[in-house]
Please model this.
Amino acid sequence: MKDDNCIFCKIANGEIPSSTIYEDEDFRVILDLGPASRGHALILPKNHYQDVCALDDSVAAKALPLAAKIGAAMKKALGCSGFNVVQNNGRSAGQTVFHFHVHIIPRYDGGPEMVSWKPGEPTKEELSETAELIRNEL
Ligand code: 5GP
Ligand code: ZN
Model:
């Protein structure tokens, strides 16, 4: 369940040192080396999964509660007023390390704008056509 060529496998399993803020049998949570804000953390499963589609259901079920726990601790420890939970899948989505991970990004009042997009203006017909295309693949 580990990939010998994967840097996050090595970090998650302690073969490469990291600024660890939490560890249990399934996960290691570390500080990002290129943080979007002070405290930016990454939740890494100890086993290798390329992305959210490959993730084991039992690991997936634990990831979001862990993100909430880390975010709540950041609010107390760092004084951020909020945090983003971000998870990229695929190159086009900004994934650069192909070992599933969840970003927890502390947000500070008056801090820079991040994780935003310009809202589109689809018609009702476009929305229902798009919804049907996806529904048909579930
Ligand atoms: P992605 O773009 O794949 O969603 O996120 C990868 C993240 O991992 C980036 O924010 C990047 O700064 C971080 N990162 C890449 N290599 C390392 C590393 O060796 N150590 C740590 N702590 N973070 C890393
Ligand atoms: Zn890996």
